[in-house]
Amino acid sequence: MRKWLLVLGLLHAVPSLAAVALQQSVESLARGSDAVVRGKVIKRAARWEGGRIFTEVEVKVSEVWRGQAPASVKVSVPGGEVGRLGQSVEGSPTFGDGEEVALFLRKGGGPAYGVTGLALGKFSLAGQTAFPRLDGMKVLPAHLPARERVIEPMAIAELRSRVGSAR
Amino acid sequence: MRTRAPLLLAIAAGLLYAGPALAFLRTQTPTGTPLFWKDPHVTMLVYQKGATPSCGNDAATSMAAVQSVIPTWGLATRAGESQRCTGARISLGGPTTSDETGFFLGEPGAPANSNLIVWRTQFCSQVVPAGDACYQACPAGVYCQNCPSKYHCWDDTRAAKIIALTTVTYDTVKGQIYDADMELDGWNGTAGALSSPSNPLGNLDGWYFTCVDRPGGPGLPPPVCAAGDPSPSSVCTCTNYAQPNCIFMDVQNTVTHELGHVLGLAHPPDHPEDTMAATAAPGETSKRVLAADDVEGICSVYPAPKPSGGCATAGGQPALLALLLGALALRLSRRRHAAVRSVSSTRRAGTR
Fold first, then answer.
1. Is residue A49 within 8 angstroms of chain B, CB to CB?
2. B143 by DSSP, 3-state: which?
3. 20 to 30 Å CA-CA from A138: which of A81, A116, B26, B165?
4. Which own/partner pairs from A54-57 qualify as long-range (CB within 8 Å, at least 24 positions apart)?
């Protein structure tokens, strides 16, 4: 009975955030990115940046699928927690220690990369499958070019192939 | 029959609890603490300068569009009731000349914290000099400007292809919200097609926000405007930047949704008709108006104060009732088990 009541409580504890973006395909994300890499999260830390909290994530790159990238990339994503203060930025990708990921990266004026389309541009890799985590995204439907599909779970090999073939 | 009572009560508790929990969701900290305003009377300031060239290049129209939806959440009223059911209020503090988003801790020179609605109409990648300190970490106790505020730009490196963002600053232990800022990635004023072969899903010139009302009231997207029609005779979904009399990224639709996030609400699963739904379409205006789930959400999180005693609302009652039923089920279960143990031990004693 206690377990049953615990389940009731957990039903309410589903985290969710939100940002608004137009539907993208793997190809459109790739076209809008400077690099697409596969790698493993080796470090993450949040910091203040002029009234805003950003989480800097270091990823050890195992494969570069598009563009050029160093052996280790630093990625900066909006939101995070520093001490007693946190900033929830809807739709920003979250990372776990040691997580295997595929990232669509965009280089800007700062020292770190950004993730193209926030959560749209991050896939978690498990086994042979790549999973997008779009809980926090409000996605507006859009007409995609012929032979392009919405962001969805797919085989890692397919993701890699679609990134490589994007023109 | 008596032995089934705990199970039946538990099922009833689950059914009662599952209803509202699935109809709305709250934003939570990574450890699961829901976010909330201690004083749910939230004042938003609008950065007027960025409001153009949206809405026919008329800042007053843009402001009026925002103003028209500011009260929406505070007026939430359940179907069939005449009194609003929430104590939450969002009010417009007027225009501001500051677009300094974020949260400051009283560092010398830092602006006062305020909740902002800001249009950004140029990309940071095009205006921030390489190596600018605004991208660097800010030492504790020192006031630094972030790049979007310093250069009045959309942080396209770290929010590429995003239409709108709301940043909520909160206490990591209590979940109390201290500040919330909404940023809209607005159009830069360059004319052209909203979609082109070289940029089929892009927003190379920002997103075209419109304020046009749909005939007959808010609803689903109207038909797409005829190609090349500079001034459609009836309201349609825009095909070009600067096109008048059409709807694209509806300001009221977008701002109403984002204000839900300001108040700590998240996306409900599988409820596409809700204002807080995770899906919408260009040209859609239906989310200007709260759906029943949105009303239930805001009224459960911030119930209207009762005139005399009591604090439970209809939204809170199922959850409260569920808890009571759950506790009753647990108690009955314990009694039953105690009785079984008692009988069992009596039998064992009797056999010795």
1. yes
2. coil
3. A81
4. A54/A78, A54/A79, A54/A80, A54/B158, A55/A79, A55/A80, A55/A95, A56/A112, A57/A95
Q: How far apart are CA B257 and CA B288, in angstroms?
A: 8
Residues of B in contact with A8 (CB under 8 A): 13-14, 17, 322, 326
How close A19 comes to chain B (CA, Å)? 5
- Phi first, then psi: give them for residue B70, nearest 5 degrees: -55, -45
Residues of A in contact with B203 (CB under 8 A): 22
* CA-based nearest residue in chain A for residue B277: A138
Cβ–Cβ gap B167/A106 under 8 Å: no
With H, G, I as helix, E, B as strand and everything else as coil, classify residue B296.
Answer: helix
Contact B240, B210 (CB under 8 A): no
The strand pairing partners of B250, in sequence order, are B210
CA B287 to chain centre: 11
- Residue type at B251 in one-letter notation: V
The upper half-sphere exposure of residue A166, i.e. CA atoms within 13 Å in the direction of its Cβ, equals 26
Collapse the DSSP code of B142 into the 3-class scheme (helix H, G, I; strand E, B; otherwise coil) and give the result: coil
CA distance B159 to chain A (A): 6
Buried-exposed string B276-286: b where 16+ CB fall within 10 A, e elsewhere: bbbbbbbbbbb
User: What does DSSP assign to residue B179?
Assistant: E
Over residues B292-346, the pLDDT tens digits come to 999 999 999 999 998 765 444 333 344 444 445 555 555 655 555 544 444 343 3
- Pick from B71, B255, B88: nearest CA to B177: B88
Distance CA B284, CA B251 (A): 10
Contact B259, B302 (CB under 8 A): no
Tell me which amino acid residue B82 is. S
ipTM for the whole complex: 0.80
Q: By C-alpha distance, which of B148, B145, B43, B150 is closest to B104?
A: B145
**What pLDDT does residue A98 have?**
96
Cβ(B171)–Cβ(A85) under 8 Å? yes
β-strands B162-171, A85-89 pairing:
antiparallel
Q: CA of B265: which chain A residue's CA is closest?
A: A17
What whole-number distance in Å separates Cα of residue B186 and Cα of residue A79? Answer: 22
pTM, whole model, 2 decimals? 0.80
Cβ–Cβ of A144/B200 closer than 8 Å? yes
**A-chain residues within 8 Å CB-CB of B276?**
18
Q: Are B122 and B52 in contact (CB under 8 A)?
A: no
> d(Cα A107, Cα B44) in Å, to the nearest integer?
33
Assess contact for A88 and B172: CB atoms under 8 A. Answer: no
User: In Å, how far is B327's CA from the nearest CA of chain A?
Assistant: 9
Q: Which residue has the tokens 């073939």?
A: A165
Band (pLDDT 50/70/90 cuts) for residue A91 is confident
* CA separation for the pair A44, A150 (Å, rounded): 29
A:B CB pairs within 8 Å: 235
